[in-house]
Specification:
Elements: H1 5-22, E1 35-39, E2 45-49, E3 55-56
Antiparallel strand pairs: 1-2, 2-3
Protein name: IS1 family transposase
Length: 57
């Protein structure tokens, strides 16, 4: 058992930071992070940049 709560949660914070960075989506057209996930016509997942309007799947 760690002597301090900081020793216990330190690893959790580092993992959360890595996970958040890995899930960010950038628009391949303009590089913006303002991306929305939408449901496509055939049930697939698509993405739309709310900055420039570019869409992709």
């Amino acid at each position: 058992m760690p002597g301090s709560i900081r020793g216990e949660v330190g690893d959790l914070f580092a993992t959360a930071v890595r996970r958040k960075k890995s899930t960010l989506l950038n628009c391949p057209s303009c590089g913006s992070l303002q991306v929305a996930q939408v449901l496509g016509d055939n049930g697939g997942i698509s993405y739309v940049c709310t900055t420039c309007g570019h869409s992709w799947s």
